[in-house]
């Protein structure tokens, strides 16, 4: 087969023209499309990387906030537990204090009740003892006991302090009416001695008024105006009972 150079050259020219056409109208647009696609892919990858980095940053931030929140919740829970424990301790202490107060009140009330009961028993015992002593003394009392008590009253009148004597003498005459009450009838000698002792004491020569009251059991009840000398068993027993009630 013979080579036709003209045809060969024409084919070469056609090929070069085709290459030029392909380069200018096909290859360059394809390269541009590929470049745009590559740029788009790179931009997408860059955006994806940025999003990934942002996501990682958000994840770390969220994890940090979650850790902080857990820490705050733990601290708040511990603070709440401490506060509850403090409140519980305070309430327990207040409850114990209230219980102690109530026990103390109960103890004091019980002591008062026992003391009142004891005083009641003592008063009852004193009253019974006074009644028994009154009956006993009433059965044992007589003129001899009366005579001894009269002598005791006269001796007590003679031993009054000067201030008391001055008080009796400074009373107006009308207020110094003198009454001597006895449990048994007084002898004439006893009346004379009492009259002399009271006249010396008061400086008043007024006659005495003698009365009899067997409730005195034995002894005398001397009244000089507002002043009274109780030298008898009834008043002594009454004073003993009242002293027991006052304790």
Identify the notable features of this structure and list them briefly.
247 residues, 2 domains, 4 strands
Q: What is the helix/strand order?
A: HHHEHEEEH
Task: Give the DSSP E fraction (strand runs of 2 or more residues).
Answer: 5-15%
Low confidence ranges: none
The beta-strand count equals 4
Q: How many domains comprise the coordinates? A: 2
* Helix-strand makeup class: alpha+beta
For the terminal residues, how far apart are their CA atoms? Answer: 166 Å
**Judging from the principal axes of the Cα atoms, what is the shape?**
rod-shaped
Please state the CA-atom Rg, rounded to the nearest Å: 66 Å
> Can you count the helices?
5
What is the typical, i.e. mean, pLDDT? 79
Largest sheet: 4 strands, mixed
The share of residues in helices is over 70%
Q: How would you write the strand order of the largest sheet?
A: 2-1-3-4
Structure explained in plain terms:
The chain has 247 residues and is of the alpha+beta class. It folds into two domains: 1-101; 141-246, no CATH class. The chain has five helices and four strands. Strands 2-1-3-4 form a four-stranded mixed β-sheet. Helix 1 packs antiparallel against helix 5 and helix 2 runs parallel beside helix 4. The longest helix is centred in the N-terminal third of the chain and has 136 residues, at 5-140. It is rod-shaped, with a radius of gyration of 66 Å. The protein starts with a helix and ends with a helix.
């Amino acid at each position: 087969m013979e080579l036709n150079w003209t045809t060969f050259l024409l084919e070469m020219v056609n090929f070069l023209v085709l290459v030029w056409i392909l380069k200018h109208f096909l290859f360059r647009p394809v390269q541009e499309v590929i470049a745009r696609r590559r740029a788009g892919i790179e931009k997408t990858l860059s955006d994806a990387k940025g999003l990934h980095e942002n996501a990682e940053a958000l994840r770390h931030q969220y994890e940090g906030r979650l850790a902080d929140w857990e820490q705050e919740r733990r601290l708040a829970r511990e603070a709440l537990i401490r506060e509850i424990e403090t409140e519980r301790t305070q309430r327990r202490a207040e409850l114990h204090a209230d219980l102690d107060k109530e026990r103390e009140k109960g103890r004091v009330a019980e002591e008062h009740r026992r003391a009142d009961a004891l005083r009641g028993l003592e008063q009852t015992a004193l009253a019974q003892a006074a009644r028994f002593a009154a009956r006993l003394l009433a059965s044992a009392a007589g003129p001899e006991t009366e005579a001894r008590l009269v002598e005791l009253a006269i001796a007590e009148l003679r031993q009054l302090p000067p201030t008391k004597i001055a008080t009796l003498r400074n009373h107006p005459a009308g207020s110094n009416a003198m009454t001597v009450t006895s449990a048994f009838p007084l002898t004439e000698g006893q009346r004379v001695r009492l009259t002399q002792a009271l006249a010396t004491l008061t400086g008043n020569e007024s006659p005495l008024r003698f009365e009899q009251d067997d409730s005195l059991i034995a002894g005398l009840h001397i009244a000089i105006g507002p002043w009274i000398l109780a030298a008898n068993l009834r008043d002594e027993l009454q004073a003993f009972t009242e002293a027991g009630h006052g304790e």
